[in-house]
Amino acid sequence: MENFQKNRHLSELPPVLTAHLFPIVGAKLLDLLKNLTPKDWNCTAVKQWTVKDLATHLLDTNLRRLSIGRDGYFGESFHGGSPEEFRAFLGELNHSWVKATRRLSPRVLCHFLAVSDDELFQYFSSLDPNKPAAFGVSWAGEDESMTWFDVAREYTEKWHHQQQMREALGKPGIMTEELYGPVLDVFVRALPHTYRNVYAAAGTKIGFHVSGVGGGTWLLARNADYWLLKKDSDSTAQCRISIPSDLAWKLFTNGLSEQEARSALSVEGDAKLAEPAYSTRAIAT
Q1: How many whole angstroms separate alpha carbon 78 and alpha carbon 138?
Q2: Residue range of the domain that includes 240
Q3: How far apart are CA 275 and CA 58, in angstroms?
Q4: 240 touches 232 (CB < 8 A)
Q5: Does any domain span residue 195?
Q6: Cα(282)–Cα(152) distance, rounded to whole angstroms?
Q7: What is the pTM of this model?
Q8: pLDDT more than 70, % of the chain
């Protein structure tokens, strides 16, 4: 538990409780999918994945979390190795599932999404958010995390993949204060881990501001040993970074190239302190 206790001090932010939001985003996804044409289903949503591929990926996450968390059944497991090996393992799991489920019709897919969404909500709602979770949030640098953080990480997956589908289809998004605000509040917790190898004198401060719907202002402050994240602003910060909310989620989910990230972020003060922010990620990449 030593690393866990240390990681807990990287943020002074309060927990983000998201279990109650799963039925809302799930219903919005089903409303979207049930009205798609065959052409829509085959529309490219992200990289090599279509809208249907992303939907089946979300089904996979439902079923895996229920199997592992609720039922204690792991199936294929990762047994140590480097971060690169873990990403390769996860990538192969995702690829093999999406390839196999291309055999499912949209109607069958929507049915199983609805059933598994309900069971996942019931499972997450039954958990104590303040107890250690089965999985650590790796992109926050945690080997072990609290349950609320693990659940919130799953919520950001639900939200951002649906938003990707909606953008690809030219449909209205789900960027509301209720649904998107918690996503950003979770994503920014990647910042202390992103800056973990950036040395700066104690007292150095970096402001991070997201303007628009769901946004806010956070502050990374350096003490003697690490960077600490808090919900605050400081006009005397050595570096002040800002980004519009419609681009912020893309930054954290590998949706912007480095050039696009540099164009999206506005930087005042010491530009060198902004460099890690261009590649910050709140997903397992």
Answers
A1: 14
A2: 190-279
A3: 32
A4: no
A5: yes
A6: 12
A7: 0.93
A8: 96
